[in-house]
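Sample entry (186 residues):
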Amino acid sequence: MRLISHTISRQNEVPKRPKCLELRSSRWFITTVVAVATAIDISMYGMISPVTPTALRDRASLPDGQIQAWTSALLSLFAAALLVTSPIIGYVADRTESRRRPYVFGLFELAAATGLLCAGTHLGLWIVGRLCQGAAASVVWVVGAALLVDTVGKDGLVESIGYVSMAPSLGTVAGPLLGGVLYENG
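Predicted structure, serialized as tokens:
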């Protein structure tokens, strides 16, 4: 009897609203999160480019004759992973009940892949890191776009896409600049 009364009383409780729900659901917040994540993704791509040849020589111990080929290959691996995983990510994201989990997973995957490159002392780790970065980028871009469509609404969608479209330009400018600073000081 006690179990039944406890169950009935729990059914009458009003569920707690998540903290900061209005803020996290607002158009400007979602647009900002997607734009910042996109800018960070692109800036990491640009940041790695000037550092890669030196890192392959000094950290992965590649001979000078192989550095240019592997630098190009690593850039291509990122693009290949992005190309292959983007439609898969779109398919999976359309079948999940929330965009939040795949999006947060993609952000953590991007951070982990970048950490793998920072710690990588073997060419194999660099290959895995770049493949993971490309896959993570597909999550950030594809799920981010779906998140905008789902939450911003038809009236504000084009404006939000406009702001998010500025992010790659910002990342393209900031990435090589930060990569050069890292190269000189790191």
